Amino acid sequence: MKSIPAQLLILLSYLNEASVNEKIKGRLDTIYEWLECKLTRIIDHEKLSDLKSKPDDPQVREQWRLILQEAISEDDLYSNELHAMFDEGIELIQRNDPEWYQRYCSNKKKGEPEIR
Fold this sequence. Notes:
Layout: H1 6-16, H2 22-39, H3 45-52, H4 58-73, H5 79-96, H6 98-110
Helix pairs in contact: 1-2, 1-5, 2-5, 5-6
């Protein structure tokens, strides 16, 4: 895996946001828990929690890339399965919280680290 999927960064940003739709957040938590279960053979929960809280940090992004790459190479995670779950999460956000999604995309284009 040459780069971390952009969808992961969006999902983590949504999960870390305080004032978002709780129903969406609940479903995204389920997706994240699925990912966490897939990754626990190669990294512990505590480290994943640390990484989850800082999706905009370039060093954290690199760690995510390496973790996902290792999980895929060890057959703990399948790339098509990963992308399907991430796509589901993004579609959920786009459909049910389009304002948040638009702000996120606008802020990323401007280079702003957070959504306000």
